[in-house]
Amino acid sequence: FITGADYPSGIAVDDTYIYWSNGGANSIGRALLDGSGVNQNFITGAFFPMQVTTDGTYLYWANQNSHRIGRANLDWSGVNQNFITNGNPTWAVAVDGSHIYWGSTVDDSIGRANLDGSAPNQNFITGVDWPGGLAVDESYIYWTSFTQAKIGRANIDGSGVNLNFIASGVSFGGGLWIDG
After folding, report:
1. H helices of 6-134, where?
2. Which of 25, 77, 109, 175 is the most exposed place for a label (fewest CB within 10 A)?
3. What are the distances in angstroms from CA 12 to CA 29, 47, 53, 98, 127?
4. pLDDT at residue number 177
5. Under 8 Å between Cβ of 74 and 54
6. What residues pair up with 131 in beta bridges, in sequence order?
7. What pLDDT does 145 receive?
8. Which is nearest to 90 in space by CA: 111, 62, 71?
9. How many Cα atoms occupy the beta-carbon half-sphere of 133 within 13 Å?
10. ∠ at Cα 15 (12, 21), nearest 5°?
11. In Å, how far are 96, 98, 125, 170 from 160, measured between CA atoms?
12. Quick one: pLDDT at residue 107?
Protein backbone atom coordinates (compact mmCIF):
# COMPACT_ATOMS: atom_id res chain seq x y z
CA PHE A 1 0.00 0.00 0.00
CA ILE A 2 2.79 2.43 1.01
CA THR A 3 6.42 1.52 0.42
CA GLY A 4 9.74 3.09 1.32
CA ALA A 5 9.25 3.44 5.07
CA ASP A 6 12.37 2.88 7.17
CA TYR A 7 11.65 0.80 10.30
CA PRO A 8 8.00 1.85 10.65
CA SER A 9 6.75 0.99 14.13
CA GLY A 10 3.81 3.31 14.78
CA ILE A 11 0.80 4.48 12.80
CA ALA A 12 -1.96 7.05 13.31
CA VAL A 13 -4.90 8.02 11.12
CA ASP A 14 -7.10 11.12 10.99
CA ASP A 15 -9.86 12.13 8.56
CA THR A 16 -7.39 12.95 5.78
CA TYR A 17 -3.98 11.34 6.38
CA ILE A 18 -2.09 8.28 7.55
CA TYR A 19 1.02 9.07 9.64
CA TRP A 20 3.82 6.65 10.54
CA SER A 21 7.16 6.63 12.27
CA ASN A 22 10.33 6.08 10.24
CA GLY A 23 12.64 4.95 13.05
CA GLY A 24 15.58 4.26 10.78
CA ALA A 25 15.28 7.64 9.02
CA ASN A 26 14.47 9.66 12.17
CA SER A 27 11.35 11.06 10.56
CA ILE A 28 7.56 10.90 10.50
CA GLY A 29 5.90 10.01 7.19
CA ARG A 30 2.48 11.01 5.88
CA ALA A 31 0.19 10.04 2.99
CA LEU A 32 -3.42 10.60 1.98
CA LEU A 33 -5.84 7.89 3.10
CA ASP A 34 -5.83 6.35 -0.39
CA GLY A 35 -2.04 5.89 -0.16
CA SER A 36 -1.17 8.71 -2.58
CA GLY A 37 0.90 11.79 -1.80
CA VAL A 38 3.51 9.86 0.19
CA ASN A 39 6.00 12.03 2.06
CA GLN A 40 8.46 9.87 4.01
CA ASN A 41 9.96 12.97 5.62
CA PHE A 42 6.85 14.93 6.61
CA ILE A 43 8.58 15.73 9.92
CA THR A 44 12.35 15.36 10.26
CA GLY A 45 14.75 15.55 13.18
CA ALA A 46 13.09 12.90 15.35
CA PHE A 47 15.27 10.58 17.46
CA PHE A 48 14.26 7.03 16.49
CA PRO A 49 10.50 7.69 16.63
CA MET A 50 8.30 4.79 17.68
CA GLN A 51 4.52 5.18 18.09
CA VAL A 52 2.63 8.20 16.73
CA THR A 53 -0.83 9.49 17.59
CA THR A 54 -3.04 12.48 16.85
CA ASP A 55 -5.77 14.36 18.66
CA GLY A 56 -7.05 16.06 15.50
CA THR A 57 -5.02 19.23 16.14
CA TYR A 58 -1.51 17.92 16.82
CA LEU A 59 0.59 14.94 15.92
CA TYR A 60 2.59 13.40 18.79
CA TRP A 61 5.40 10.83 18.63
CA ALA A 62 7.65 8.96 21.06
CA ASN A 63 11.34 9.74 20.46
CA GLN A 64 12.86 6.56 21.88
CA ASN A 65 16.53 7.51 21.70
CA SER A 66 16.19 11.03 23.12
CA HIS A 67 13.68 10.12 25.86
CA ARG A 68 11.28 12.82 24.66
CA ILE A 69 7.79 13.23 23.22
CA GLY A 70 7.62 15.29 20.03
CA ARG A 71 4.65 17.34 18.86
CA ALA A 72 3.71 19.30 15.72
CA ASN A 73 0.66 20.94 14.20
CA LEU A 74 -0.96 18.78 11.54
CA ASP A 75 -0.02 21.35 8.90
CA TRP A 76 3.69 20.62 9.51
CA SER A 77 4.32 23.77 11.53
CA GLY A 78 5.41 24.13 15.14
CA VAL A 79 7.60 21.02 15.24
CA ASN A 80 8.90 20.51 18.79
CA GLN A 81 11.06 17.41 19.23
CA ASN A 82 11.34 18.16 22.98
CA PHE A 83 7.68 18.77 23.82
CA ILE A 84 7.87 16.57 26.94
CA THR A 85 11.16 15.31 28.38
CA ASN A 86 11.16 11.86 29.93
CA GLY A 87 14.13 10.38 31.76
CA ASN A 88 13.86 6.99 30.07
CA PRO A 89 13.45 5.49 26.59
CA THR A 90 9.89 6.10 25.38
CA TRP A 91 8.17 3.71 22.98
CA ALA A 92 4.48 4.35 23.32
CA VAL A 93 2.29 7.47 23.21
CA ALA A 94 -1.49 8.05 23.34
CA VAL A 95 -3.81 11.03 23.82
CA ASP A 96 -7.35 11.67 24.96
CA GLY A 97 -9.30 14.93 25.21
CA SER A 98 -7.32 16.14 28.23
CA HIS A 99 -3.99 14.32 28.51
CA ILE A 100 -1.04 12.81 26.74
CA TYR A 101 0.28 9.46 28.02
CA TRP A 102 3.62 7.76 27.34
CA GLY A 103 5.23 4.46 28.20
CA SER A 104 8.74 4.38 29.70
CA THR A 105 10.54 1.12 29.10
CA VAL A 106 13.31 1.34 31.70
CA ASP A 107 11.36 2.33 34.79
CA ASP A 108 8.27 0.33 33.72
CA SER A 109 5.87 3.22 34.04
CA ILE A 110 3.25 5.20 32.17
CA GLY A 111 3.58 8.97 32.37
CA ARG A 112 0.87 11.56 31.88
CA ALA A 113 0.75 15.32 31.26
CA ASN A 114 -1.86 17.86 30.23
CA LEU A 115 -2.20 18.23 26.45
CA ASP A 116 -0.23 21.48 26.59
CA GLY A 117 2.69 19.56 28.16
CA SER A 118 2.20 21.00 31.63
CA ALA A 119 2.09 19.02 34.89
CA PRO A 120 4.04 15.98 33.69
CA ASN A 121 3.87 12.98 36.01
CA GLN A 122 6.56 10.49 34.96
CA ASN A 123 5.12 7.75 37.20
CA PHE A 124 1.37 8.10 36.68
CA ILE A 125 1.07 4.28 36.60
CA THR A 126 3.97 2.07 37.75
CA GLY A 127 4.89 -1.61 37.50
CA VAL A 128 3.67 -2.06 33.92
CA ASP A 129 6.71 -4.02 32.61
CA TRP A 130 7.99 -2.36 29.44
CA PRO A 131 4.88 -0.72 27.94
CA GLY A 132 5.21 -1.25 24.19
CA GLY A 133 1.81 0.12 23.15
CA LEU A 134 -0.79 2.45 24.67
CA ALA A 135 -4.41 3.23 23.89
CA VAL A 136 -7.06 5.24 25.75
CA ASP A 137 -10.82 5.58 25.63
CA GLU A 138 -13.17 7.66 27.75
CA SER A 139 -12.86 5.31 30.74
CA TYR A 140 -9.59 3.38 30.58
CA ILE A 141 -5.95 3.38 29.58
CA TYR A 142 -4.63 0.11 28.11
CA TRP A 143 -1.05 -0.98 27.52
CA THR A 144 0.82 -3.93 26.10
CA SER A 145 3.65 -5.51 28.04
CA PHE A 146 6.44 -5.86 25.50
CA THR A 147 8.23 -8.59 27.48
CA GLN A 148 5.39 -10.45 29.23
CA ALA A 149 2.92 -10.83 26.33
CA LYS A 150 -0.14 -9.45 28.10
CA ILE A 151 -2.37 -6.37 28.14
CA GLY A 152 -2.95 -4.24 31.22
CA ARG A 153 -5.70 -1.75 31.99
CA ALA A 154 -6.35 1.02 34.51
CA ASN A 155 -9.05 3.60 35.04
CA ILE A 156 -8.32 6.83 33.18
CA ASP A 157 -7.44 8.49 36.53
CA GLY A 158 -4.70 5.88 37.11
CA SER A 159 -6.61 3.87 39.72
CA GLY A 160 -7.73 0.26 39.45
CA VAL A 161 -4.54 -1.02 37.82
CA ASN A 162 -4.94 -4.54 36.40
CA LEU A 163 -1.59 -5.78 35.08
CA ASN A 164 -3.21 -8.96 33.73
CA PHE A 165 -6.35 -7.60 32.05
CA ILE A 166 -5.69 -9.94 29.10
CA ALA A 167 -3.05 -12.49 30.05
CA SER A 168 -3.47 -15.19 27.42
CA GLY A 169 -3.49 -15.23 23.64
CA VAL A 170 -1.15 -12.23 23.37
CA SER A 171 2.30 -12.56 21.88
CA PHE A 172 4.99 -9.91 21.66
CA GLY A 173 3.18 -6.86 23.07
CA GLY A 174 3.75 -4.03 20.59
CA GLY A 175 1.20 -1.53 19.26
CA LEU A 176 -2.33 -1.24 20.56
CA TRP A 177 -5.46 0.45 19.14
CA ILE A 178 -9.08 0.77 20.20
CA ASP A 179 -11.86 0.48 17.65
CA GLY A 180 -14.59 3.05 17.94
Report:
1. none
2. 77
3. 10, 18, 5, 18, 27
4. 64
5. yes
6. 145
7. 84
8. 62
9. 22
10. 20
11. 18, 19, 10, 21
12. 82
Instruction: Please give the C-alpha separations between residue 47 and each of 3, 30, 147, 159, 179, in angstroms, as whole numbers.
Output: 21, 17, 23, 32, 29
> If phi over 0 gives left and psi between -120 and 50 gives alpha, with beta otherwise, what is residue 23?
alpha
DSSP code, position 6: S
Specify the pLDDT at position 89: 78
Rounded Cα distance, 77 and 101, in Å: 22
Which of these, 18, 17, 24, lies nearest to 9 by C-alpha position?
A: 24
pLDDT in tens, 141-154: 999 887 788 899 99
Give the whole-angstrom CA distance, residue 110 versus residue 12. 20
pLDDT in tens, 123-175: 999 998 888 889 999 999 999 887 788 899 999 999 999 999 988 777 665 66
pLDDT score at 175: 67
Contacts of 74 (CB under 8 A, 6+ apart): 14, 17, 54, 56, 57, 58, 59
Task: Assess contact for 47 and 79: CB atoms under 8 A.
Answer: no
Sign of the CA dihedral running 125, 27, 178, 146: negative
